[in-house]
Amino acid sequence: MAQQQQISLPAKLINGGIAGIVGVTCVFPIDLAKTRLQNQRGQQLYKNMMDCLIKTVKSEGYFGMYRGAAVNLTLVTPEKAIKLAANDFFRHRLSKDGGRLTVFKEMLAGCFAGMCQVIITTPMEMLKIQLQDAGRLAAQQRVASSVVTTLKMGGTSGVLSRSYNASQVTRVSAIQITRELLRTKGVTGLYRGLGATLMRDIPFSVVYFPLFAHLHQLGQHSSEDPSVPFYWSFMSGCLAGSIAAVAVSPCDVVKTRLQSLKKGANEETYNGVVDCVRKILKKEGPGAFLKGASCRVLVIAPLFGIVQVVYFVGVGEFLLGYTPYNIYSA
Questions:
Q1: Each residue of 284-320: b (16+ CB within 10 Å) or e?
Q2: Which residues of the chain have pLDDT under 50?
Q3: Crossing angle (nearest 10°) for helices 194-217 and 103-153
Q4: Dihedral of the alpha carbons of 235, 239, 241, 246, in degrees to the nearest 10
Q5: Number of domains the chain contains
Q6: Type and span of the H or E element at 223
Q7: Are 101 and 144 in contact (CB under 8 A)?
Q8: pLDDT value at position 161?
Q9: CATH number of the domain residue 152 falls in
Q10: Domain region containing 77
Q11: pLDDT attached to residue 2
């Protein structure tokens, strides 16, 4: 038994890593739209998710929808591995002789998992947001420039449509951003918005993991056969992820605003979580906290559905020569 537990941890880390890569690749364009919708204030460049994606493709090309994907794909492997493996680890530690956990202990395990993952999540999100939002800021500058030029020439038509056919967005890499942050602010620069990230990820994990465990358990064939059809794992991940995503959407808006280093013209700067919340309420109203909520659900639902399918299929166990249900504990 001890040997199985020792080998199961690497297997779970492999599962989490593969699951994260597959999931992120599928839903990244929607995540980019979410970031840009959450960050825009004042002048509305994008009406909704589809409008954002269409304008992104027009101005930046197809691969513009994957700006920041390299950072996410690189760091999502350790992030998802830590998140999923930590939840399993703490569930195992909190259970008595493999017994069934109470809802409180399930929530506690999720809380600890959320705390562990921010080691990777915070710098990953920090870099990803800068790359994702670069196109929005460039588009905003082009619109402002077009407006000024048009006013000087005495015309007013076609400003917005022409702006999206302008020159390509200036490219900036994650390595450049990292070097600049380390040079000017040290390691702490990469962990800007840590409090807001904790404020989002801990409640998300507290809601998601217990809810998923109970939904997943409903799909078991019998107490003797704990296996679950892959489609049930997918649907359980989607539903639990959707509910958790909506619950913490306001925290995600605050986190995104705090981690955006560059601002557009006349856009607010924030000094911490409380200041950010206060200014958003004052300038944009309560509805601003739900900006990008539908996009976030469309990202999280399939992402965690895919993640759970890969995780519970047991790719890691297969690669290590073990079947998933011999070492699975839920």
A1: eeeebbebbbbbbbbbbbbbbbbbbbbbbbbbbbeee
A2: 1-7, 156-169, 325-330
A3: 130
A4: 160
A5: 1
A6: none
A7: no
A8: 43
A9: 1.50.40.10
A10: 2-326
A11: 36
